[in-house]
Amino acid sequence: MLATLTGFGGTWLLAFIINNINIVTAQNLLMVFLPVYAILVTSREVCGYYTRKYGEMMPTAYSNHLHLRFLNTWLNYRSNKLLNFSKEKLQIYTDRYISYVNHFLMDWNWGMPKHITMLLIIIGILWYQSPWVLLINLVYMTGFVILSMYLSRKIVKPIREYHEADNEQQAKKQNLLLNLN
User: How far is CA 162 from CA 73, 166, 169, in A?
Assistant: First the structure.
């Protein structure tokens, strides 16, 4: 998020210079704007480097760790429920859950900072236009979120039935492949 904010700061600084080119002196440009711009660009690149260095591997590493935790738990778990559960379905549920966690973490790493920054910029622009414009947009968005949640609740049952049929189909396919020897 810091990389996005510093990138926006650099863009805003350039836009400020271009819009006020007739009052910006060469000395002011070299002594004030150039060092600030250099600091913003450098900090953006440093933040981007560390995000890519540690952020890219985190979802995959955590997914592998989570998979090992599931396997260790099931190996040490003594229950009749687990013994009576289909081994194919257990693997399908595990893999699907881990893929959802991986997708969530990837989106959290790469999507959330960008979306939060854009939201803050939009809120600032709307507030600058008029607090009433911001309030009207917030009321509109709240209504949209409430309607979306209502419609989502209506579609949960058909989606759940679809997932159950999909899990059953995958379990049968995996059972067939395991018994082909």
Answer: 28, 6, 11
Q: Do residues 30 and 75 lie in contact, with contact meaning Cβ atoms separated by under 8 Å?
A: no
Helix/strand/coil (H/E/C) assignment for every residue in 72-136: HHHHHCCCHHHHHCCHHHHHHHHHHHHHHHHHHHHHHHHCHHHHHHHHHHHHHHHHHHCHHHHHH
pLDDT tens track for 2-30: 777 788 888 888 888 888 888 888 888 78
Residue range 130-159, pLDDT digits in tens: 999 999 999 999 999 999 999 888 887 777
Q: What is the pLDDT of residues 27-80, one digit of tens each?
A: 887 888 888 888 988 888 888 888 777 777 888 888 888 888 888 887 777 766
Non-local CB neighbours of 62 within 8 Å, separated by 6+ positions: 101, 102, 105
Q: Report the 10 Å Cβ neighbour count for 46.
A: 13
> Which has the closest alpha carbon to 90: 2, 158, 170, 1?
170
DSSP, collapsed to helix, strand or coil, labels residue 150 as: helix
Other Cβ atoms within 10 Å of 10 Cβ, number: 18
